[in-house]
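Quick note —
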Amino acid sequence: MKDLLYKSFAKTGGDQLVWKLDSSRLRILCYHGVCEDRLAGAPWMPRYFVTQSAFEAQLQYLQKNARLLPLAEAVRRLRAGSLPPRSVCLTFDDGYANNLRLAYPLLQKYAAPATIFLSSAYIESGDFYPFLKVKLIHLSGGRPPEYKSNPVDAVMEGAKTWWPQVESELTLDQRDSLRAMTIEELRTADPRLLDFGAHSHTHCILKNETAERRRQEIRTSVRKVAEWTGRPARLFSYPNGETGDFNEADKAALRAEGVEAAVTGVGGANDSSFDAFELKRYPLTLYHDAARFRAEVTGFRSALLSATGRMSA
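Predicted structure written out below.
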């Protein structure tokens, strides 16, 4: 039923009506990885990736219907009351190498600025992100600690039982698709098109850690990103980023490091009453076909969720 609603919304021009009626709010899109189309159905492929062809189609739509802005500029203009109508920002969480290998050429093609938030430990080490280790171990039949409800050190320690065997069996496609970018790779990006922000050091969910560990995670990631890029890291993304995953003390720690704005995993658009350290975003995944994308970026899907209370919409 929901897919019919989305298709009807797109077919009848509902997205164009929403753009006209609700053009003043800032819409921030949340991506993670981009994969080759041929790999989209692989059981190990994260559902929160998008295919390369879908990403290009989404950029084409945004180029025609929105004003793409760098996130830092958009936040400043929203605060100043000078945000252009239909403003949209592109963001990527984690720091996958595929952001540069597959997404970056398309960002260049469409002159689309974006911000990539880096979990600094994995940019340095080349190790897999903890949530990916958990997923791949589960697929192999192992039972590591649950990622979202445990301190990250406990998750990584628990994964040690299975990870060496799982890692030894990874295919080239898995390694290429899931690895983090390197420091050398991120330095090849044009700073006029790509900005880099911080995403904690070890991608721990802050609520699962001690107060001191939370401050350390923020401090380390912000300073390392600044060191690698040669520019202050003014933007931050909370890992997972749902309500309760971060608090006012985390915001204070970000301000102490010179961070000017932080994005969350909470869905929605941002109006003039926004909290710069609690910016909402719309998530994009493998499930977003053209109709679902239009419903997502305009906020129609969020409105439908709010009206029905059905989180599966």
